[in-house]
């Protein structure tokens, strides 16, 4: 997934790192600095080697926080740039050659190679974290081990056109009183009739955005089946959900061409142009909208609930410490320092993103932004265990884009909703070896 509000991850500057094929730089600690509270016993005069995936922007939040730690503790930081795809092949070689970084910012290495990483659940009090951020980002699904701890995450959400809502006489739902999907569809029709928009709503052409509709109605990709899984994507609840989605596209409430494959347009552009009343997307768009939307007032509304629950999909990155790194103790010292409330708040104020710690949030000075962030942070509580089980199955290792293609075939009328999901379920069962 994409990064919320301050781009993706971080990385370093210049110089080729011969052993890894990446780049590195070193940030010296300031002389005469003192250790932060809680880090007085931290090692000093050492170099923390950190592996990240992209070049940092100026004033990058994480690298700035790393430098703050270095200055306070009398250590230095060496940053390595290795793109994600390259990490998959290079990290095993680094482990084999005992040439590991001390700290890794990652979305997947800790799950692919859990034995190579420290169990950070034994290092930090995990009760400080948002439970679903910890479960989705950190959990090693085959054990209770936490091979990484959450750094940042994004969340799916709904943006809305305030001017269109006012023109249509609609009151925005609240976190404590969310709309149902039926109410969303009713509001979408009213926005088209009285709000001056072309489409009442739009949904990103993304299986993850569609899947929120599925989870709201109690559906899922798979179900637990003992120590394995059972394919559940073609359940009657899921067929009904897809059929409703097809019907609403056919009614013109949404721009059908997006999901029928007749256009490569980005529905986000439709929203920015004022053509859409409600836009189902994610928090990663917030900064861009703040800059790009000048023709109307907009905001973030709470996501709706379906027949069973609400739903939001969370994704992000975490920090991990290789078990056999040269300066493992130094990395663990940084981990403890980073997740202290004062230090994490410093990082969060720079990052302007969503918080992985309970009770610690980014609080913008702007009143509108503060209200929007309150809604965004509340979306974390909508993440369902159904999504967590689906993630634990790692079904995308077998099929991925084929799922969205099946949804598209139903929307464009090539297949019925039932046929599309039955065909995909059979293909997933065959590839995975799971029962149906």
From TrEMBL:
This protein's UniProt keywords: Signal
Coiled coil: none
Signal peptide: 1-29
Pfam families with a match to the protein in the record: SBP_bac_1 (PF01547)
PROSITE patterns per record: PROKAR_LIPOPROTEIN
Protein name, as recorded: Sugar ABC transporter substrate-binding protein
Species for this entry: Ruthenibacterium lactatiformans
């Amino acid at each position: 997934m994409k990064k919320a509000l301050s781009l993706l991850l971080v990385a370093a500057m210049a110089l080729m790192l011969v052993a890894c094929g990446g780049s590195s730089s070193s940030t010296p600690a300031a002389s005469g600095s003192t250790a932060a509270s809680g880090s007085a016993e931290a090692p000093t005069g050492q170099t923390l080697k950190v592996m990240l995936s992209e070049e940092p922007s100026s004033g990058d939040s994480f690298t700035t926080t790393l430098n703050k730690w270095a200055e306070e503790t009398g250590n230095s930081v060496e940053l390595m740039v290795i793109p994600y795809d390259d990490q998959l092949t290079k990290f095993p070689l680094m482990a084999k050659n005992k040439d590991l970084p001390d700290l890794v910012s990652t979305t997947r290495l800790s799950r692919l190679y859990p034995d190579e990483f420290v169990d950070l659940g034994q290092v930090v009090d995990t009760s400080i974290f948002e439970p679903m951020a910890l479960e989705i980002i950190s959990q090693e699904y085959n054990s209770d081990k936490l091979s990484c701890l959450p750094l940042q995450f994004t969340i799916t959400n709904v943006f809305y056109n305030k001017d269109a809502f006012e023109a249509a006489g609609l009151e925005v739902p609240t976190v404590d009183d969310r709309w149902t999907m039926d109410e969303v569809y009713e509001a979408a029709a009213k926005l088209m009739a009285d709000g001056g928009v072309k489409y009442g709503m739009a949904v990103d052409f993304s299986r993850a955005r569609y899947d929120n509709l599925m989870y709201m109605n109690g559906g899922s990709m798979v179900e637990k089946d003992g120590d394995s899984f059972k394919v559940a994507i073609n359940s009657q609840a899921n067929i009904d959900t897809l059929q409703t989605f097809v019907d609403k596209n056919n009614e013109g409430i949404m721009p059908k061409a997006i999901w029928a494959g007749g256009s490569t347009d980005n529905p986000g552009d439709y929203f920015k142009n004022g053509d859409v009343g409600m836009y189902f997307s994610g928090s990663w768009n917030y900064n861009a909208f703040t800059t790009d939307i000048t023709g109307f007032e907009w905001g973030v509304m709470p996501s709706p609930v379906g027949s069973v629950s609400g739903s939001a999909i969370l994704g992000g990155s975490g920090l991990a410490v290789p078990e056999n790194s040269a300066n493992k103790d130094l990395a663990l010292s940084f981990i403890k320092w980073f997740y202290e409330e004062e230090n994490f708040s410093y990082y969060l104020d720079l990052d302007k993103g969503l918080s992985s710690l309970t009770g610690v949030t980014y609080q913008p000075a702007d009143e509108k932004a503060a209200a929007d962030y309150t809604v965004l942070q509340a979306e974390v509580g909508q993440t369902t265990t159904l999504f967590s089980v689906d993630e634990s199955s790692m079904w995308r290792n077998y099929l991925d884009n084929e799922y969205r293609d099946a949804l598209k075939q139903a929307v464009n009328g090539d297949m019925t909703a039932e046929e599309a999901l039955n065909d995909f379920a059979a293909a997933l069962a065959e590839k995975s070896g799971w029962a149906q």
